[in-house]
Description:
Layout: H1 20-38, H2 40-46, H3 48-52, H4 57-60, H5 65-80, H6 84-98, H7 102-114, H8 118-131, H9 136-148, H10 152-163, H11 170-188
Helix pairs in contact: 1-5, 1-6, 5-6, 5-7, 6-7, 7-8, 8-9, 9-10, 10-11
Amino acid sequence: MPKRLIRSMHFRRLFMPLPPDIEAHLADISQAASRTLATLPDMWHNAQADLTRGLTLAQSRRVPEQQIEALYASAVRLCQVEQFEKALPIALLLNAYAGDQARILFLTGTCLQRLGLAAPAAQLYAQCLQADAQYLAALYRLGECMAAINEMAGAADVFEAVAGMGWNDQQHLELRSMAEDKLAALRAAGW
């Protein structure tokens, strides 16, 4: 499988555009998420007692798990068609609601990285790895972000770690190969 097909890693790129009705629906969800984000300071303030007891914002606001899953599926779908600017508000809302989940941290990092915001994306990938140390795609993406912000020595260390992983399934083999290529390029440049 060509390496460019795994470009979106966790979110396989779709090669067909979304039907107009689905695209409009996802755009509406993105706009609604943006409006909800505008009220986030008030939500946090009103939920302080629950948050100090260890509840997530979603639990405090009694957001059903089905709604979290629907939002997540919408954001992933937008990422698959490379509409990261529309996926970002949904991902940020999910991050506020359930930012303890590695997949949501990864999703938010993906949106930020693809929009050229490597530094905050790197922070989210690092948080993702704190939530799930085996999230190899997050480790690889962290290396990409470190290279993008000119932390070449750190990027080389990260790519070396990914290349040294022993997993043998197809996705991880591709990640290892890609990391080896990035590492070789960094080593050739003196890092």
